[in-house]
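Lab notebook, bench 4. The sequencing result for the construct came back, and we need a structural model before the next group meeting so we can plan mutations. Quick request posted to the team channel:

Model the 3D structure of this chain.
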Amino acid sequence: MKRDPRLVRLSREHTQALMLAQRIERTPPDAPDADLSSLYSTVLAFWSGGLLTHFTAETDCLLARLLHHVAEDDERAVRLQRDHLDIETLVGTVRDGAGAAARREALAAFATRLRDHVRWEEETLFPATESLLAPDELDGLGADLAARLPEQPPSVDNTRPVEVVRAHVVGPRGFLLGKRARDGTWSTFGGKVDGDEEPGDALRRELREELDIDVLDYHRLADRDRKWDGTPARIAIYAVTRWSGKPRNAAPREHSEIAWFTRDELQKLAMHEQARLEALRLEWPATAAVERAAPP
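Done. Here's the predicted structure in token form:
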């Protein structure tokens, strides 16, 4: 089916989505955990590296214009939003599902729903959009999609996420943050996981390199799918509550300074909003039997 060139960026990304769905569907039900682990990573990278942006563009650019011509309860408008929500929910289960069986089921369901969604859009939604929208509306849609989506989508084979660890260092005096040398904003500490390194080992190494401390107690708070220096990344967020050594700015090229902040001060800092919210939800240790950083 020949596609209007103003919608072609969406269709190109559909090709990659169908390739991923086919790969999942060809995986045997009794595939070893190692094979499934690779598929899980590919799905999560494809989501954070392209599919989430694709869905947002469809909603903000295509659906917003379509609703000028159809009612909000139009079957096509309703299905688009329902499909997006269902697929996002399945991605969440693939990422955070309790138990191997739940993740396997979600992976299979993700492939089916994604394939059906793509085919429905190509056969039903896009032809309706081309028919209902006026030429100037289609021009505006094409321009908006060009601003949001790459001309050539990332290949499914190249979407394995970078693994990253980030640490909230928290003690009785508050939160220890570093002021980033490149832009002056305040941030947590951490970096990329090297090779076959375990995330916990990467966390200890990064804090030794950046703060010259040895981590004793820490726990994992959450995993986030974000961009890291423009690359899809899986970021493991930790809270570090106990360590040995006096924190110092051991990586001045990364942070121009380090400093402790109270909860009230934290709310006024220039920093990533998600990191601020994560920090404010933490329980502060009541005691500390280790040496702490001297006041800045």
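Residues 286-296 have pLDDT under 50 and may be disordered.
Will bring this to the meeting.
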